[in-house]
Amino acid sequence: MEVDVLIVGAGPAGSTTARFCAGRDTDVLMIDRRAEIGYPVQCGEFLPVAKEMHDIFPRSMDLEELFTVDGSVVAGDVTAIDMISPSGKVYRCPFEGLTLDRRSFDKSLVKLAVERGARLETQTSLLSIKDGVAKTTMGEIKAKVIVGADGPRSRTAREAGMRGVSESYPAVTCQADGSFESVVKMYFGSVAPGGYAWIIPKRKGANVGIGFNNRALKQRPSELFQRFVDNLEIEYHDMTMGLVPTSGPVPHTVSGNVLLVGDAAGMVMATNGGGIPTAMIAGRFAGQTIREHLASGSSLDRYEQLWRNAMFKPLKTALRTKWMSDMVFRHDRAVDLTMRLLGRKGLDRTIRCKRVFHVL
Ligand SMILES: Cc1cc2nc3c(=O)[nH]c(=O)nc-3n(C[C@H](O)[C@H](O)[C@H](O)COP(=O)(O)OP(=O)(O)OC[C@H]3O[C@@H](n4cnc5c(N)ncnc54)[C@H](O)[C@@H]3O)c2cc1C
Questions:
Q1: Cβ contacts of residue 308 below 8 Å, gap of 6+?
Q2: What secondary structure letter does DSSP report for 165?
Q3: For the chain, which domains are there?
Q4: Which tens digits make up the pLDDT trace of 99-128?
Q5: Is the CB of 171 inside a 6 Å radius of any atom of ligand 1?
């Protein structure tokens, strides 16, 4: 088979890329190894509103186009984030966001791409890439451009000889029953060494989980998760595990005719673990660049310049903050002390990927 663009992975990165490069004159094929797009849900499902995203990434433009989501995929509204120290002190940071129904959200993004003319094949995996030809479980596909939007363990990156994500944290999540305050709770300290445990409220129930550095503690993610949910005394279902890239953006996101987008490119905010918005911001740049490339032969390297200009600095700042907190956050007492020194304002800056240590 021959297509103009092959997109590996139909998560937020892949479907947004497809949405912005598909068209009557461009044949775009998305493949995803999952049987159902968006399921299982390996996510906390939190999405900041556009104005909060603009505060984090001031150089990014037209965010309403990306983050104005249909009410049918919204499971709750959030007004603030509580950052909770090991001793139980609460630092409340006003922050507006949505809790998504990620199972529906990912499908809604694919629908937008399909409306523009992109096609989707589920239960189809990329196996290898040789001489520009992708070998997949549905046969060989020759593409002018290949997009790796296939998550932190990107096979596309490996097959294209590109450096992929070098470190990821395990994260376990579930759907909890019950009613919860419309505030995100982030718990720090030995409850989730090097990361945090969360409650992200929905109108009905909540997304509850933990993400942590398993080098900081040699414990199975499921054990740590169990301890957290047992303490909360909640009923839950749909427990899943996933990986959150924590090594920052990869050094090159373009090589020949291959582009990496989203988690495959390490585009996650290291201080909060959020990667949906960054995947979509980069996906739009990737789609637009590919479209121009196919129309006029312009360089695909433009994608690298565009996403770096919009997002690299805050992503790097967050990564530095995380490195520093990894050094300090070794014991609960040190976590308590650091959070007290930073105070509400400093902590607010950390989740917004802004420099914090100069405020100490
Ligand atoms: C437990 C957990 C909680 C999180 N919570 C949040 C949160 O609350 N808010 C937030 O913004 N971010 C959160 N994240 C991060 C967020 O989920 C990711 O950053 C986001 O999904 C990245 O989108 P993506 O499209 O790059 O990758 P993905 O959404 O992972 O999509 C990749 C797709 O590629 C497919 N794929 C993989 N390999 C192949 C292959 N070889 N062939 C074909 N298809 C393939 C997969 O099936 C998948 O559908 C969380 C992550 C985890 C693990």
A1: 249
A2: -
A3: 2-76+102-167+246-359 (3.50.50.60)
A4: 999 999 999 999 999 999 999 999 999 999
A5: yes
